[in-house]
Each structure stands twice: as C-alpha cells, then as structure tokens.
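For the sake of transparency, this paper describes our internal protein records without simplification. Because each token names a local backbone shape, the row as a whole describes the fold. One such record is reproduced below, unchanged from the form in which we store it.
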Amino acid sequence: MSKILVTGGAGFIGSTLVDRLIKEGNEVVIIDDLSSGKKEYVNPAAKLYKIDICSPKVARIFQKEKFQFVYHLAAQIDVRKSVEDPVFDNKINVLGGLNIIENSYRHQIKKIIMASTGGAIYGEAEEIPTTENYPTFPLSPYGIHKLTLEKYLNYYYHVYGLNFTVLRFANVYGPRQFKGGEAGVIAIFVENGVKEKESLQFGDGLQTRDFVYVDDVVDGLYAAMNIDCRGEINIGSGVESTLLEVRENIEKALGEKIKIKEKPKKLGEQRRSCLSYQRAKDVLNWEPKINLEEGIKRTVAWTKSLKK
C-alpha cells in the first residue's frame, strides 16, 4: 500500500483514478479547489483538501501527509479559455504545476506522474499517428503551458533526481465528463442529445481527433506508477475520428438524430490530431480496450442515468 496524492482528484479523470487507486488498496489524498471537479465524485475513502494548487498552503499538506507518489492532474483544461486568457492559463498550468513539482522534490516523493496533452502539444503534425519524438509546436497557450511543465519535470530530474513520467493524453471522454473544453465535445453532444437540446459544431465536422475512453486512461496512469521511464508516453487510441463520426455514434447510441447548429471554426483549433500508442505498448504494456462506439454507448447510458 502507498500513500498517494492526486491533484484534481475530484475531476473527471482524477476521480476515476482515485477510485482505482483505492480499489487497489492505496491511501489517497486529494487536492482540488472544486472549480471544475465535483464533491460528489470524491471517493468517501479519500481525504479531500479544498485548495488551489497555487496556494502556499500546499507545502503544509505535503509536510503533514508524507506522500510516496503524486499524480498531477489538476489543470485549467479548456483550450479555448487558454486562448482567451493565456495569463490565467499560465498561472494554473505552469505556476500551479511548478508548486506541486517543487513540493514533490522538497518532500522527497518517490515519483510524480503528470497528465499532459498529446492532442494539443504537437500542433499540426504531419506524422499521423503522431509519435512522442515528433517536434512540439503547440497552437494554443494550453499546449504551450503543458509543454513548459514537462520541461520543468525534466529539469528537476536532471538537477535534483526527482523521478517522473509524463503521460500525454489524447481527447479523453466518458462518464463524469461535463461540458467545457475542446476535449469535452463528446460530453457536450451527449448531454445535449439526451436533453434534446441543440449543440454547436465549430467548423465543417471533418476535423479529426483521437478519442480515448477514461477507463483506458486510468489503466495507463495506474501502470505508470511502477515503471522506470522518464519521458513522455502517448495515451491514445491510434484512430483518427471526425466530428461527424462522433455524431453518428451518438445518434446510434441514442436511437435518434441530435440537433446541431454549425458555426465557423475557432481560432487556434487544430485540423487533425491522432496519437501513436506504440511506446505505451512497449513501456507500460498498455493498449486501449474500449473503441469509440462502445465508449460512446457507455457515456450515453451514464448520462441518461443522471435524469432518473
């Protein structure tokens, strides 16, 4: 059994990870300001500190709890919000993340595992599916700031010996995800579809993304705790899916058409994104198990259950 900190542990991916860590017999502490996380997602066996990751009080929590491992998932996750307010995005995703890294080093944790982005870090890649070695030219402040924090981790490893692994996620979706952020497009369309409301589609619908189901992502996060790999590992499906294909799968799961209003494409939005998971297969012994059709079916079922 290990004592583990999960930042952002009340969020969509974080809370699902916390459930898994507790199921495996670990003691889990959460830091989450609940700005996007939900208290009802917090596992009752976990200890929650409602606090901002930028707060100086974070040091006291590290001092008191004496963690062995840290999962850093807390972030400003909305790509479009990062475009509108890069300074705020920098504050949370760089300075807040740096606060967690600095405390991890000072309190001698065994390892930090960081949730980064594969969807936003490579920019308009010519190599599809994109490997971790591809040059990083992010097209949004969100992608820039995630890359910055990756570089800080590398610095803390080389200078101070802080062990780390970075997982670069594709577009994660599934139960507990709510509206907000580019990666939330499935959540937005499903929720509106279930409520018979209109959804906005930005662009022609032929832009592609790599959608990976949350349970698969958590499998990757869990495996990352026990590997010896400093560097970046993509966690994606390796499949390019258009927004139109997403719509078709949602309509299939719902058994009816969804209402869509088309709008011009957004600034800073990539045309294509798809990740190679070969390194995850080699290093983590990981590969995705849930395809898009099955994942959307499960997401629709969960969303419908909320209405009851």
Summary: The CA atoms of residues 56 and 99 lie 8 Å apart.
